[in-house]
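Q: My collaborator sent me two sequences in one message, no labels, and asked for predicted structures for both. Can we handle them in order? The first one she listed is below.
A: Yes, handling them in the order given. First sequence, followed by its structure tokens:
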Amino acid sequence: MTMTSPHPPVSDIDIYSDAVLDDPYEAYRTLRDIGPVVQLASQPVWVITRYADVRNALANAEVFSSGAGVGVSDDMNALQAGSVLASDDPQHALLRSILSEKVSPRALGKLKTHIDEQADSLVASVVSAGRFDAVSDLAARLPVSVVADLIGLPATGRELLLPGADAMFASFGPMDERLVGRLPEVMAYVQYMTEMASRENLAPGSWGAAILDAVDDGRLGPESAMPLLAAYLIASMDTTVHALGNYIRFLAEDRDLWNRLKADPSLIGKGFEENLRLESPAQSFTRRTTRAVDVDGTVIPEGTRVAVCFASANRDERHYPDPDRFDIDRGAFDHLAFGYATHGCAGQGLARMENQALISALLRRVERIDITEEPRRHPHPIIRGLEHLQVAVVPARGTGR
């Protein structure tokens, strides 16, 4: 029989500190072992780290609410108000419905040929150079181009998109020195998106135009247009960029894995899921409890800010055997890197399509890929990925340089 405790264990581990962010997985393991729910002494949050408990919390959106924002700081959560990330049903369902047809499998299927062609052209250009940065020259280019086109943004100003999305994700972390230093970027991005949310700037027939159509016909309030536009931009770019960068690193470091995928490209998608499990691009978001709730014997009071840690859940040895090993045969399709249930990532189908296109082109055009410098980790309180991944490639026979 489980005994209910009103007092959770307290830990001085700070999941947002530089030391933990550089390599968080031992800290996550420690937190999982301490208890199902742990109160952080360093931050105004409690944290859930075990797979079953994170999944249950994500499935219980009425109690673990997103409506008060999904970050740590109340001040920054105010910026998220009215967005698809920071809302509960029925508002959340309404916001998701505006673009649900655009992100459906049927609609995305019509984009496949175009995305495949973009990916192949991009890979051909970097392979011809022989050496390149697999993050900035490859992983960071395809998602930005694809999503900006889908949203309908003009070509001018697109250089602001990825840094802006990165800054917005950083605003989900604590209000510390790092975030204070990035506030000008956050506000500049909000200003840019406010200016872009107009008929003059968005291409007809685009996702952005569909949002404005919803405003015009009364399905959406005018105040929700920019937050919804920004939410799809942010969620569809930064995490995909880092997921691709992480996957390329795994492929470059493991020659057997690389050769296996070259021999059988049908495994690309399966490998991508294991990559997402092992290196979740979004480490954690927060929720606020709407009432007291018992999590595996520990009571979380009403109004508590709770970090649900996707990255820890995805390495929970209670759910995944040998969780720190990349195992393409694991079949980890139940990972939580894209969230789960009500707030499952709306853009995950697009992310998988972009991955399939880019990695397919890379395997087809490259015989061997080698890392030439120590990969540089991207310092970030929420997103885990690489800032640089310098590689050298040997072109596949018959493709040329």
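Q: And the one she listed second?
A: Here it is, processed independently of the first:
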Amino acid sequence: MKKIDFLKIILMAWVVLFFSQSCGDQTASYDDSALDVPYVPTPMEVVDEMFRLASIKQGDVLLDLGCGDGRIPITAALQYGTKGYGVDLNPERIRESRENAKEAGVEDLVEFHQQNLYETDLTKASVITLYLLPSVNLKLRPRILKEAKPGTRIVSHDFNMSEWSSDKDSMVFDDEEAHAVYYWIVPANLTGDWDLKMEDSSLEIKMNFTQVFQFAQGKVVPEREEWKITEEDIKGDKISFTLLTPECEWDFRGRVKENVMSGFAEKETSGKVILWEAVRDPVTKKSLDIISQ
């Protein structure tokens, strides 16, 4: 067995023991009936799977909504050196999280705040972890799609996002039950009308994109015979699509930033690659969430 694997096993065993004792020593005097979500700790096996699906790495900023005893941000800090934030309405959970962080020696990497998760700033996180309820996930969903940066990774224990299908999912089995883990990448918003121009080319067209969650559909406007946009794909802020014209086919690759997307386009017949840019009319942008439309 490699030395690094042995050290990781020791670390994980310590984390499991630490949080098992921490959870067992606490008594809840706070009125949990005032909360949207009851306090149920995420098993450490599930925490590990959440990290695997989200590909947690050093440099990530992790936000745990409904942090409980703080085990998710604390474990990420211990394993990967990530910065983390946790929010919870229960002051006892926040006090417990801060004590656990201090005992684990990562209080310089993690912060915990007594705060309403619906009012929490989502823009600083590269990873957001959840163990809430279906109704809470649905209430958060429009905010995540609107406010979280494209490319932000969302991981949820047990509960999905209803019509927003996960990009990946898995199951974790322990001695007592099975646990589902769901993973999404927040997509860039492509909706609306875009003016496309290609460098060193006379090609200038207007495009329109409609989009629900991570699925987009484009078209050339006004519609022209044999002009089509196909193979639309979004991964975070990365966009790709194919433009079919009567003369040739162009494969577009690029990134989206607010109301501008740009990148390189390759002409299929010649392999010629040129720069392109598209600018959106901001008043045509729409919500990605079907609830908000």
